[in-house]
Amino acid sequence: MKHFKVILFLLLFFSLRVSAQQNTYPVLDMQTACTPVANFMTADSIPVFSDSTIYAAQMQITLEDTVNISSIEVKFGKSSNDLLLQKTFVFDASGTDGTSYLRNGYNVVLGLGNAFQDVGSFYAEMKIKRSDDSFSQVFTFLK
Q1: Contact between 35 and 16 (Cβ < 8 Å)
Q2: CB 74: neighbour CB atoms within 10 A?
Q3: What is the DSSP annotation of 50-107?
Q4: What is the pLDDT of residue 83?
Q5: Which of 73, 82, 100, 125 would bridge with 111, disulfide CB 3.0–4.6 Å?
């Protein structure tokens, strides 16, 4: 009986260890927001949203771990078939070309740009590329 308990303990220990390694680099949370930045106020300071309203888009990601992450691949658009931005952010490197990257611990904020029009409803997608060139699952956001 004593050997059975030892074997059961070892099996449980190794199965938990393997399952924890299979779920490496999970994303705990991913949110995307569009904020109006131009052409949304009347002369009387009343907000009016139209096709000419210009929006800034931002993605916030909370990671469980930051080890061995190579990059973050992002897609943003009006739908999955009508993309306005498709970009790979190098992990821990500043954004260029109108985008931005900011990491504070396990929180990553990606500025996707501030010149989007007609994105009252939008599609966002994100996946993490690991250092071994494998990918995390794809996370999507629809509004």
Answers
A1: no
A2: 22
A3: -TT-EEEEEEEEEES--TTEEEEEEEEEEETTEEEEEEEEETTS---TT-EEEEETTE
A4: 92
A5: 100
